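Notes to self after the Tuesday call (sharing in case useful).
The group wants a holo model before anyone commits to mutagenesis around the pocket. I volunteered. Ligand is pyridoxal-5'-phosphate. Logging inputs and output together so the record is complete.
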Amino acid sequence: MHLSAKRMEKISTHFFNTRQEKVKRLIDEGKDVICLDIGSPDMPPPQHIIDTLCNAANDPQAHGYQAHNATEALRHAWAEMYHREFGVKLDPNQQVLPLMGSKEGIFHLMQALVNPGDIVLLPDPYYPTYLKSVLFAGGEAYFMPLLSENDFLPDLTQIPRDIASRAKLIWINYPNNPTAAVAPLSFYQEVIQFAQEFKLLVCHDAAYSQIYFDGYRPTSLFQVPGAEKLGIEFNSLSKSHNLAGWRVGAALGNEQSVQTLLSLKTNTDSGHFLPILRAAATALTQDQSWQVERNNRYQIRRDIVVEKLLELGFETSKPLGSFYLWVKVPRGQSANQLADRLLDEVYVSVAPGGVFGQGGEGYFRIALTQPKERLEEAMGRLEEAVSL
Ligand SMILES: Cc1ncc(COP(=O)(O)O)c(C=O)c1O
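Result:
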């Protein structure tokens, strides 16, 4: 009996699912695997966020279904965060929709907006959910290459005008996963202009907006005046507040798409757990100063690993945002083979670039989500593997 729907053929099982199963098998065999593949922060959230969760869980009234658009307090908390961090004003009731992680919102937004045959402009390499969600909706992707010579920004002038006129939306994502590139305000201005010319919705994924180094501050799309009417931005507490497992994100901006997403979500979930909603509001509105120390730690890790990679002859650079390193595979080798060898021979798991699309071929991605000592150990093992 063939049970899966035809559209399932368009979306294979996610790489990290298969990789996690393999890593688990190796760990069960007693191998000391160092995981630098998935971007799940290793540091805990601060205690005041956990305390809010625990206190709320003790409230007998906190266990029922919640509204699909969460609580007023949480919508206000997201709007407050955007005002504080980016100087942007959003209407908490119409332009803010809390999500169960931004991945959920990204996938569902495409189901809510994309018709079969619609063209969506996607960066390549990309966060895999962009492509899978478009294909699942029956849409078609047009890829905008992210090249090192363009600082991993798409060259909008290279998009054929007939493609741009037929496209419905454009995805961008900075600080970028997987390349770790960042984008200046002028890039966002260019994208907004392009979107206005071709009547596109801009979808900006700002999942790494709070992870930055060397005095750099990432930009929100909405720092371009009026962009909150023309675009939708996704944000998340997964990386900003070390809360990946809690599944808290938000869709913000363009009212019509935020409300269409809400309408779809009234059919797919029944609200989040109230203690998580309360703790998320605490996370967004209370003390943020701990993030300085957290980002410093990522920065120290970044410097150690980049220096070692350069010493070993790899090509990479020090990113200003995100917690990834995007590393070129030495000439004559394939990223898949190198990643397989690293896992099979020295038990270090990295993500081969092809996981993020054709444009990722020839690279691998390292997530700096392990303590400094483990990263040093991983680099020692990498040295061993490349000299084998
Ligand atoms: C670029 C990007 N967007 C979105 C997400 C999803 O984050 P979450 O669903 O945890 O909010 C991730 C997670 O790795 C990501 O890297």
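Two things stood out.
Residues 39, 101-103, 127, 173, 177, 205, 207, 236, 238, 244, 249 surround pyridoxal-5'-phosphate (CB under 6 Å).
The mean pLDDT is 96.
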